[in-house]
C-alpha cells in the first residue's frame, strides 16, 4: 500500500543517515561519502512533501567529509558549496563563511577574499536583523584578511626601509589595507560578543599608528562593558596593553584582580602574586596569599615550581615574623580536609623527589608549616634530602622543628 511504501522509505532514509553518522564517527570518509550520495538521491525521490529541511544537515556532513576525504579536491568542494548555497538560501552567508575557512585552510587567500566580497554584496528577500549580523560577520572576516595584507606590506616596509618610489607605493598600499581593515573590525566589536581575534588585530593597527588612547578605550570597553559576556581574555589583553605602555601598578593590579575573580587558575596569577607581595599595603599582600592558594587548588598547578616557591616564601616569612598567622590559618581552614591527599601524600612525595628535587623542597616547606613535622610528605622528602646530604634540606628540617609550635597553631 501507499502508506507502507512511505513508511519503508522513511525507515530507509533514517537508516542511511545513521550509517553516514557512524562512518563519520569512525573516520571512514569514503564510506560516509557513498552513503551521503545515496541519502541525497533518496531525498530527490521523496514525494512525501514533509518539511524535513535537510539542506543544513547535508551541508554540515558534506563539508566535514570533503575536508577529510583523501580523494576530494578544492574544485569539487567549491562545486558542492555553490550547490549548497543555492539549496539553502537562508543559510547563504553561513555557508559562504564556512567556504572561506576551507579556502584559507588550503592557503587560497585571494580566493577566500573574493568569496567574502561576493557574500558581502549578496541580498535575499527582506533584510532581517539576522542577515544584518551575519553580514557584519562576513565584513569582519574580510577585515581580518585586510589586516593580513597590511601585515605583509608592513613587514616589507620594515625590511627594506622607506627609501625610493617602490617603497612609497608599498606604504600607500599598507595604508589602504589599514583603512579597510579598521572600518570592518571596529563595526563587529561594537556588537556584544566574544571577538578576541578581531579586537587584537584592531588594537595592533591602532598601536602601530600611535593611537594609544583609542586602543585603550577599545580594550576598556571590551573588558568592562556589562553588555558583553564575561571574558577572561578581555582582561588579559587590557593588562598586556597597560604593561606595554608602562601604566601604574594600580591599573595593572585592577585588571588582574578581575581576571583572578573570573579565572583563579590563570597563568598570570604568578605575576599577579609577585606584584601584590611587593606592595607596602597589608591588604594587597593578604590578597597575594589568597591568589597563590587559590591557584594551587587546581590540578594543572600541582607541579608548578614557581607557584610553590611563591607560597613557600610567603608562609615562611609569616612564620618567622609570627605576624599575620591568621592569614595562613584562614586559607588553610577551607583546605585542610582535602589538600593533604591532593598535594601532600607519601606517593606524591616519592614521585616529586624522583622527578624534581626543587619542587619537592618547596612543597616540603609548605607541608611542614601547614601540617607540622609529622606530615608524611615533609618527613619523606626531608629524610631523602638529608640522606642525600643536600644542605638546604637539613636547614629546612631544623626550621620546621624549631617553629613546630607555630605550625601547630596554624594546623589547629
UniProtKB/TrEMBL annotation:
Transmembrane segments: none
Pfam family, one: TAF1_subA
Signal peptide coordinates: none
GO BP terms: transcription by RNA polymerase I
Gene Ontology cellular component annotations, sorted alphabetically: RNA polymerase I transcription regulator complex
PANTHER family: TATA BOX-BINDING PROTEIN ASSOCIATED FACTOR RNA POLYMERASE I SUBUNIT A (PTHR32122), TATA BOX-BINDING PROTEIN-ASSOCIATED FACTOR RNA POLYMERASE I SUBUNIT A (PTHR32122:SF1)
Name of the protein this chain belongs to: TAF1A polymerase
Amino acid at each position: 500500500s501507499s502508506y507502507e511504501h512511505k513508511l519503508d522509505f522513511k525507515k530507509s532514509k533514517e537508516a542511511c543517515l545513521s550509517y553516514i553518522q557512524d562512518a563519520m564517527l569512525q573516520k571512514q570518509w569514503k564510506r560516509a561519502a557513498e552513503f551521503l550520495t545515496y541519502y541525497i538521491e533518496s531525498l530527490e525521490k521523496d514525494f512525501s512533501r514533509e518539511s524535513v529541511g535537510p539542506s543544513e544537515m547535508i551541508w554540515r556532513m558534506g563539508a566535514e567529509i570533503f575536508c577529510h576525504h583523501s580523494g576530494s579536491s578544492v574544485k569539487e568542494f567549491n562545486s558542492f558549496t555553490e550547490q549548497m548555497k543555492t539549496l539553502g538560501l537562508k543559510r547563504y552567508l553561513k555557508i559562504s563563511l564556512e567556504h572561506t575557512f576551507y579556502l584559507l585552510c588550503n592557503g587560497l587567500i585571494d580566493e577566500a577574499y573574493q568569496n567574502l566580497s561576493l557574500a558581502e554584496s549578496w541580498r535575499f528577500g527582506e533584510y532581517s536583523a539576522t542577515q544584518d549580523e551575519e553580514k557584519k560577520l562576513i565584513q569582519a572576516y574580510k577585515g581580518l584578511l585586510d589586516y593580513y595584507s597590511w601585515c605583509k606590506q608592513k613587514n616589507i616596509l620594515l625590511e627594506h626601509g622607506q627609501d625610493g618610489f617602490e617603497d612609497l607605493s608599498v606604504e600607500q598600499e599598507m595604508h589602504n589595507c589599514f583603512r579597510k581593515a579598521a572600518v570592518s573590525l571596529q563595526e563587529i566589536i561594537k556588537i556584544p560578543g566574544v571577538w578576541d581575534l578581531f579586537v587584537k588585530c584592531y588594537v595592533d593597527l591602532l598601536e602601530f599608528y600611535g593611537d594609544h588612547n583609542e586602543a585603550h578605550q577599545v580594550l576598556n570597553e571590551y573588558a568592562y562593558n556589562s553588555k558583553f559576556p564575561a571574558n577572561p581574555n578581555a582582561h588579559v589583553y587590557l593588562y598586556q596593553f597597560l604593561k606595554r605602555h608602562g601604566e601604574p601598578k594600580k591599573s595593572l593590579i585592577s585588571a588582574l584582580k578581575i581576571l583572578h575573580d573570573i579565572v583563579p587558575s590563570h597563568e598570570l596569577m604568578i605575576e599577579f602574586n609577585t606584584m601584590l607581595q611587593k606592595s607596602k599595603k597589608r591588604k594587597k599582600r593578604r590578597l597575594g596569599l589568597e591568589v597563590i592558594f587559590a591557584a594551587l587548588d587546581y590540578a594543572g598547578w600541582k607541579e608548578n615550581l614557581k607557584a610553590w616557591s611563591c607560597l613557600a616564601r610567603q608562609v615562611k616569612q609569616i612564620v618567622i615574623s609570627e605576624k599575620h598567622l591568621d592569614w595562613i590559618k584562614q586559607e588553610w581552614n577551607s583546605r585542610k580536609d582535602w589538600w593533604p591527599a591532593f598535594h601532600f601524600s607519601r606517593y606524591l612525595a616519592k614521585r616529586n623527589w624522583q622527578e624534581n628535587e626543587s619542587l619537592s623542597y618547596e612543597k616540603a616547606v609548605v607541608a611542614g608549616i601547614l601540617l607540622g613535622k609529622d606530615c608524611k610528605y615533609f618527613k619523606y622528602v626531608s629524610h631523602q634530602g638529608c640522606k642525600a646530604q643536600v644542605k638546604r634540606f637539613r636547614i629546612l628540617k631544623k626550621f620546621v622543628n624549631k617553629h613546630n609550635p607555630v605550625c601547630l597553631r596554624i594546623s589547629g
